[in-house]
Amino acid sequence: MEWLIPLLIVVVLVVIVGIYFWATYNSLVTLKVRVDEAWSDITVQLKRRADLIPNLIETVKGYAAHEKAVFENVAKARAESISATTPADAAAAENHMQSALRSIFAVAEAYPQLQASQNYLQLQAELVDTEDKIQASRRFYNGGVRELNTKIQVFPNNLIAKNLGFTQRDFFEVTDSAAIAEPPRVQF
């Protein structure tokens, strides 16, 4: 009978540790899936923007055919944005895209008849909406990364997270934050 109490204590401790590992693993998996989902949302919005760009270029091209370098820069930035697979690649592509969009909008400002075009105005509105969605997706992704990275780093989770294959994720940080602080601005 003396051995029953120590055995019961050991069993209770094993159960508590087991529950802790189970709960920690499940919460890490949940956070990982949330971060993956958020990254997917970013890529969907970047793809949407990339799909809008050719329409915008064609609309502006009719008015400003001599601005070939601007259109080439936008096409390069679009291709770079589509091929980005990591947050670091996407951040670099984001900087180039913002710069390219600013230059195409600067060209558009020089053509008042273009600014009055319904097609151009609709594309402009869709692009601004997409930029807002990209910004919201980035915030959601970075929030998920923050939660996952914190969960991985805190004690005692840090002792088991690495052994379970969980690694920290990179934030979606843009090197030139002023370039993307707000959607491209167009003055009419």
From TrEMBL:
Keyword Zinc: no
Record bears the keyword Iron-sulfur: no
Compartments it resides in: Membrane
Membrane topology term: Single-pass membrane protein
Pfam family, one: LemA
UniProt keyword list: Membrane, Transmembrane, Transmembrane helix
Transmembrane region(s): 6-25
Homology family: Belongs to the LemA family.
Name listed for the protein in its UniProt record: LemA family protein
